Structure formats: C-alpha cells, structure tokens
Amino acid sequence: MTRAIFPGSFDPITNGHLDLIERALKMFDEVVVAVLNNAAKTPLFSIEERLDFIRKTIPSDRVVVANFEGLLVDFARECDATVIVRGLRAVSDFEYELQMAMMNRKLAPNLETVFLMPKTVYSYLSSRMVKEVARLGGDVACLIPELVHQALKAKFGTTSS
Ligand code: PNS
Questions:
Q1: Does the CB atom of residue 34 touch ligand 1 within 6 A?
Q2: pLDDT tens digit string along 10-60?
Q3: What is the pLDDT at residue 83?
Q4: Dist CA 32 CA 5 (whole Å)
Q5: What pLDDT band is residue 157 in, cutting at 50, 70 and 90?
Q6: In the predicted model, is pLDDT for residue 159 greater than 70?
Q7: Dihedral sign, CA of 141, 156, 51, 106?
Q8: Are 148 and 53 in contact (CB under 8 A)?
C-alpha cells in the first residue's frame, strides 16, 4: 500500500490539478491532497473553501483531502505518505521544484518526490492566472471545476458563461 501526498496552495483547484491527481491515482493506492494553510499568504479563497472545492470535486475514496501548516515533510510523516507528487508544466517550473525536492530530501531522506506532467492543454494553466483572467472578466470555465467557476463568478461577478 503506497500513499502519496500532493501538496499545494490550491487557491483554487484547477483542471490541471485534477489531471495530476488522476495520474497519481494510477500509480499510488491513496493520494492525500494537502492544502497549505499559510497565514503569511493572503489567498483569494479561505482554507475551508479550498478544502470544500476539492472534496466536492473528487469523489474517490482513495483521495483524502486535508490542510496542513508547517513543514510538508512533517505532515507527510504524520500521514504515512512515502511519496510527494508535484506537477511539472514547463521548464520554468523546474528550478523551483528541484530546489524544493532537494530541500525535502535533505529533511526527510526516505520521502521521494516524483514529478508528473499534466495534459498539454493544461501546461500553461495556473491558479494565479485563472484568478487574474476571471477578475478581468475572461472566460475560464473550461479550465476549472464548475463549482469553482461559480465561486469565482460570485467573487468577481464578471466571468462569462
Ligand atoms: O501550490 P504551491 O503554492 O506551488 O505549493 C507550494 C507548497 C505548498 C508545496 C510548498 O510551499 C510547501 O511545501 N510549503 C510548506 C512549507 C515547507 O515544507 N517548506 C519547505 C519546502 S522546500
């Protein structure tokens, strides 16, 4: 039984994240989607909203959704996860991801990081860009789950369709 942890801010979850979770479920028995609760950041969506979006979007009983504070490696240990899953969209992601993977390896040598590539159509997608486009009235409906789309419309009142 291998449990993987898929950490992130998920502010909000996108179809790119969902694509990666589906891929991770093909490789691991269970995936813990770990949402960072970082008081230093000011997210658009509260931690409760972010958790709720993910729980309602992913019905699988092999996916556990949880929030965490502090070091990822400590939370991974608490969850008995042996693998960290991160997405790599483009070369531009690589440097930051490598740095993070190496630091996590230093802190927890037995915890492996694996990188998964999303579908090409999501290779340009990020939560940050979804929020910006939605705020400015662009259509992001096909890039995010429907309940996130509705929540963005409620926040900004502008996204089309
Ligand atoms: O979706 P993001 O914002 O790219 O996710 C970043 C995340 C949450 C994976 C990263 O910031 C993290 O692991 N934070 C927890 C604090 C920590 O463990 N820092 C050391 C890792 S180098």
A1: no
A2: 999 999 999 999 999 999 999 999 999 987 889 999 999 999 999 999 988
A3: 98
A4: 5
A5: confident
A6: no
A7: positive
A8: yes
Catalytic status, residue 123: no
Which amino acid residue places its CA nearest to atom 6 of ligand 1? 8
| Span 60-108, pLDDT tens digits | 899 999 999 999 999 999 999 999 999 999 999 999 999 999 999 999 9
Note the pTM of the prediction, 2 decimals.
0.96
Q: How far is the CA of 158 from the centre of ligand 1 (A)?
A: 31
155 is an active site residue = no
Q: Is 102 in the pocket of ligand 1 (CB under 6 A)?
A: no
Active site residue 86: no
Per DSSP bridges, beta strands 83-87 and 63-68 are: unpaired
Mean of pLDDT values over 146-154 = 97
Our mutation pick for probing the ligand 1 site, out of 9, 33, 113, counting the most ligand atoms within 8 A of Cβ, is 9
20 lines ligand 1 (CB under 6 A): no
Strands (E), the chain: 3-8, 30-36, 63-68, 83-87, 112-116
